[in-house]
Fold each of these.
Amino acid sequence: MFVKQLSVFMENREGRLEQAAEVLKDQGINILSLSMADTMEYGMLRLVVSDPELAKSALREKGFSAKLTDVLAVRLDDQVGELYRLTHILRTNGLNIEYMYALAASEKKAIIVKTSDGEAAAAAVLAGGLALYGNEEL
């Protein structure tokens, strides 16, 4: 029901993102989706990858601060109103969206969502007629 998201805290300096990408490349880890948020001093890289545990340990070995978080990968049809449908389901169930970003895997249409209560959000999404991907499917 949940997907493991890799969150990497890094300094906002030249080459740091490249270094993280190199670690993943060297381990043969595929990046399925990512989001990067930054300030003047630091960045938060959020990724869905082919092997989250290996990615976390490999990045930590190279000095990165990395952790795994459970998020939802909500399947969305390629049609008008699907984002509204998802946000409406969550809001009417009293759930706050902390962040979201699109899943980049070409054959999968989904959005990665972190909410205030993952278990309740998963139940609400399923009850609302939407489907979820798991790590194995991605």
Amino acid sequence: MTRYVVIRLLFAIFALWVLMSIVFFLMTALPNAPITKAQGEDDQSYLQKLASIGWFNPPIVRYFDYWGTFFGGTFGVVYNNEGTPLTTYFFQNIPNTIYIAALAYILAIFLGFLFGLISGVYRGKWQDTFINVISVILISVPSFIIGILLLRLAGVIGLPQNFVNFDDPNFTSLTFVGSSIMPILCLTFGLASTLTYYVRNELVEVLSQDYIKTALSKGLSKWKVIFKHAVRNSLIPALSVLGPSFLSVFTGSIIIEQIFGVNGIANIMFNSILQNNFNLVMFQVFFISGLYFLINLFLDISFTFIDPRIKLANASQASVYRIIKAKLDRATWRKHWNDARHNGANNYFLLNNTESLFHTLSEIKAINYSKKTVTLTQDIFALYKINAEVKYFVIGKDVYKIKLSNLNSNTQSMSGVGKGGV
């Protein structure tokens, strides 16, 4: 597992670098300057300010300058607010977002699994139909529409319509809790409906399995079978969407924060993009994406505890390294074949797909079409009187490299195949 975690972390670092690089060059394409001209400021001093942040440098120069600042630990400055460090400016507003997002996330998980369980157990009954109708409505209606409706509802029932932030001068426990209800519900509905759909479908599939029917036939109570066997086996597909769902709740609250007046990081990101404050945008991309990778890694590891049958793979047979190495090896030996062919060497064999040798190689599965290789034994060389200098087969338009096998083939079983055409 340690090797798996290290590989995943290295991949996360690489993915973060690629993502941040793309975002950086997209931000440099924006025409507006990150520093606004102060009232009464002359043009010369304003241009000097822009020059001091490297605004007139080529994008590639600014790119390397940014990484130098990033690894220096300062992450750059907040333009138009240079008195406040970037991390301080970012984290001073994050408690509002974390408070709303975390409560909405926990509430959505609880409601999603609860209603998914009810809908799956009572499949086809009125409970299932009612929950499915509500879920489809909440998934289909955009969050800003739900937000506006909840905002109107808050005014009708007497709840505060604007969120009371932690640094608000009118902050009290009562108004804070009351103003939190509608923003939290607005973020909860979409995720809860999605989880309900996943849990319900997985539970229905698990309950139709033979081992569930066997457990019921042995006299176990229905609810014991559901909670001890069915629920546990239906958790994994639902858990797989919790990582992306947390990110969507955490960052997808831009409209919600605008509607309810929440001073959170989604609001900061929206304003930072409009102002081309790329240092702040880059740090938010780094923070949120890094959090996303860590949550997914935590969920992958948690799968092994939920279901011990799941093992974390140490390496993939289709890894990028293996693919690149196979391509380079093939390019090398193809070059050798071309050089030998141009020099008149008799190291290749033209093989028609109508010849008996081709059918023999197909029957014993000696031809690897993906790797462009043919595995031969000395028996086949002797049986078909193939020159020992032959290193390549030309089949159609493709060149296949010959690989020698140490295992002797059954010459007697192939003797009846025939040697015609060779």
Amino acid sequence: MRIITGNARGAKLETLDGIDTRPTAERVKEAVFSMIQFELEGRQVLDLFGGSGQMGLEALSRGAAKATFVDNNPEAVQIIKKNAKHTGLFEKSVVLNSDFRSFIRGNKGRMQFDIVFLDPPYAMKVLHETVEKLEEAEMIREKGIVICESDDPTPIEVAGYSLRRHARYGRVYITVLVKEGGEEDAE
């Protein structure tokens, strides 16, 4: 696993051993970033189920201003920190050891993001709940992009969000949601 492009291009990333963390496949990551490649510059990113941190680090490598990584596994948090240091992106990273619900509850109205990566363990089935909780906590900016990875062929639907894309990559489904708002959406 490596950073695909940007200032940290080619940097190899470590992952946790075992089955608890499932890194996003290279071709899925490439597809995701081709969908949002022109929307990364200067953005605030949240990698909520951080794992190895590869999605947030890729966003930073491609020009995002800052990434917040959250994972409830202390070992994953250490891997994210190690990867951020190895890629030279640590100064733009905030790495937190927290359950996703506690993180959202504790940061309600305090943090906002332009791009959110959600890749929880598939068995948790919490994508819809997570997007709703982030919305209730006012943590996603207007026109914010939420990228969800799951094994569910049904696209996630959340009030106030439009579906930009839902695509299958092998056994993985990527759903890209965009928060509605602004004058364009009012028409």
Amino acid sequence: MVTSDFLSQFTLPVLIRILMAMILGGLIGFERGRHGRAAGLRTHILVCVGSAMTALTGVFGAEALGGGDPFRISAQVVSGIGFLGVGMILVRNRTLITGLTTAAGLWATATIGIAVGYGFYAGAIISAVLCVAVFTVLGHIEEKKKSVTNLYLEISNTSDTGSIVREIRALLNYDVTVNVTSPKSNCAEHLGVLLLVKTFAIPEEKVLEIEKINGVAFVVEECNA
């Protein structure tokens, strides 16, 4: 049975933990949103606050029932957050996988929220700081080491595809892997081509020159992080 004393003592910790979950989730979400990821500030805050509330609900339920397992509800969050994470992962042309880092960040944010809900502040704060560090510092290092740029273009003159690709190879002067795909514009006369260029960044003037090639409809530089 929940007593009035328990409710009065429980209200302040609930407020503190929910606000802390909001702040820690916001730190991670701000970094993701700053890089234009689909799951940004609001998503990470909601995941962290929701996870914290799950843990708090377990504690409250155990007290209300006079016993029980306060961790049972939270255990479902760890596995259930995977469904949200899957929505962040995209597979393109069977060769490129994007969104894995964001999906892992959502899972980590959920566990941070659970830790806050149970009052494990030290672990939650340390984990949040490390997550932000991984996204910023290690992410920058990883991008430099990866040094692969994805360039998508659509060709309107499909009969001249071979010569267009050869002209692009000569223009870029980099190691280029070519993957043919369906056109994003859904134009039946067009052909989609995804180029994996082994360089950290393609100069803007090179992209503009590719756009001017006869038969190239448009060019889009993609990110696969």
